Amino acid sequence: MIGKYTLFIVVSLLAVLVCPPALASEIGEYELVATWGSLGADDGRLNRPTGVAVDAEGNVYVADCYNNRIQKFDSSGAFLMTWGSSGSGDGEMRYPDNIALDADGMVYVVDDSRIQVFDSNGTFLKKWGSYGSGDEQLQSPRSIAFDADGNAYVIAGGGIKKFDSNGSFLTAWGGF
User: Fold this and answer.
1) Would residue 84 be called left, alpha or beta, if left means φ above 0 and alpha means ψ between -120 and 50 degrees?
2) Which of 84, 123, 130, 146 is 20 to 30 A from 10 via CA?
């Protein structure tokens, strides 16, 4: 049986073998433009960042996992604001694992066994999910993404769960 990391290496090597160097110049080369966020707990510093999202204005939102917060930067890396603190209450976080923005610019944070929703200024709006394996529950959620209709897809419990924009369960597939 091939492990997921072995499969990644094989696919990566195939991409290099199939994609000739001439094609790389047609696609364009990437250049490091900026870097920010040294290790720490002060504003603008990060401790195990686990997710990143960018809004329509170019602002960058980072799930700062071990600091139990979200940090917002402008597109050049200047610190703008932070929200969240350690805990399990509304707006508090317990190791936020990932982050995404919907089409309306609402910030969705994958946190412990729930999804918390904030506006772009960090104001808590709502949450959905709880620990467990039931339809509306999330067991070890890791990532979230949205389709064009605003439905959320959450990787949790070894599978994928689909919710509508209000957090109501629609369907699931996969699993442990």
Assistant:
1) left
2) 146
